[in-house]
Amino acid sequence: LSQKIASQAEAPSTTQDGCDMTLLVNAGLSADLEMDNNKEGAGVGLYRTEIPFMLRERFPSEQEQYELYRAMLNAHPEKEMTMRTLDVGGDKPLSYFPINEENPFLGWRGIRLTLDHPDIFLVQVRAMLRASIGLHNLHILLPMISTLNEIDDAKRLIKQAFHEVKEEAVQANQELFKPAIGVMLEVPAVIFQLEQIAEKVDFFSVGTNDLTQYLLAVDRNNSRVSSLYSSYHPSVLLALNHIMKSAEVSGTPITVCGELAGEPTGALILMAMGYRKLSMNAHSLRKINWVIRNVSVAELENLLADILGCCGPENVKEIVDEYLESKG
Ligand code: PEP
Ligand code: MG
């Protein structure tokens, strides 16, 4: 099987009934390497910028960040590059910026921390924008959004940074394009405000890892409750289905960048719901590409009502596995 998968790795991600899927890669520090594995892929759907921050002993300077981001944007200037602003806190500690909280996952994480420290946010966004001078592939993604105000505040800071960098670019006779700005959908509260959020952003990216954790009230890293943590819980799937429908209505481009997108069963369910852009770890790309090429979206759509009506994750997996087996 793995030989079969490898031989088709560079083939287009098109289903048997002609539906084109876009596969993107999730990147961290070894971004260059991951891009190499994605020669035929459509770009980076999630660059976790906190990883290089976590591997250092102090905050990287604007220049250091600029160099990192420039290399990424430049590697494939024609491909989408989605850079998420710093998402530390929760399970992602910075040794040089300790946070002690009783409930770190409900605490000072992601956008909450960077909006309280606009200096950190501005330096990072300036570095991203400077790195994008002359290029038009930068997408900026905001993590852990739970209120509309956070989007407004972050956009205001991005605008400020944009004007500063634009001035530099103009003086150097270079062009600075406006980046697309999107939000992570990973806090359940946003599910009920999608229409209003859509008016404020250019794209959505669904973080199924955190969305699952917060919907089910199950710590994603606690082994005592790991049997309860499942993105195949019908409530999680109903939420994902609702999100997709809402994105369709508002016409908002949407990607899924949580782990679910890199699992064959998860990818198929997402396709049945209408998701067409999936971002995953580089090592999942070939497998998911192969699965896509061997299924039909029309058939998957026929399974959706049964999937969403399941009592629990086991039944969901049974339905999809049975389908996959029928496809050989
Ligand atoms: C997620 O929460 O699903 C996600 C993609 O982000 P992270 O795993 O980095 O929190
Ligand atoms: Mg997350």
How far is it from the N-terminal to the C-terminal residue, by CA? Answer: 10 Å
Side by side, the strands of the main sheet go 7-6-5-4-3-2-1-8
Ions and ligands:
phosphoenolpyruvate, magnesium ion
Shape: globular
Helix share, percent: 40-55%
Strand content: 5-15%
Task: Give the topology string: H per helix, E per strand.
Answer: HEHEHHEHHEHEHEHHEHEHHH
> What profile does the largest beta sheet have?
8 strands, parallel
Name the structural class. alpha/beta
Description of the molecule:
Belongs to the PEP-utilizing enzyme family. This is phosphoenolpyruvate--protein phosphotransferase. It is found in: Cytoplasm. The chain has helices spanning 2-7, 31-36, 50-54, 62-75, 110-116, 118-131, 148-171, 194-200, 208-216, 234-250, 264-273, 285-293, 297-308, 313-326; strands at 22-27, 43-48, 80-84, 138-142, 180-185, 203-206, 254-256, 277-281. The protein is α/β, with parallel strands linked by helices. Strands 7-6-5-4-3-2-1-8 form an eight-stranded parallel sheet. Helix 2 (31-36) links the parallel strand 1 (22-27) and strand 2 (43-48). The mean pLDDT is 93. It binds phosphoenolpyruvate and magnesium ion.
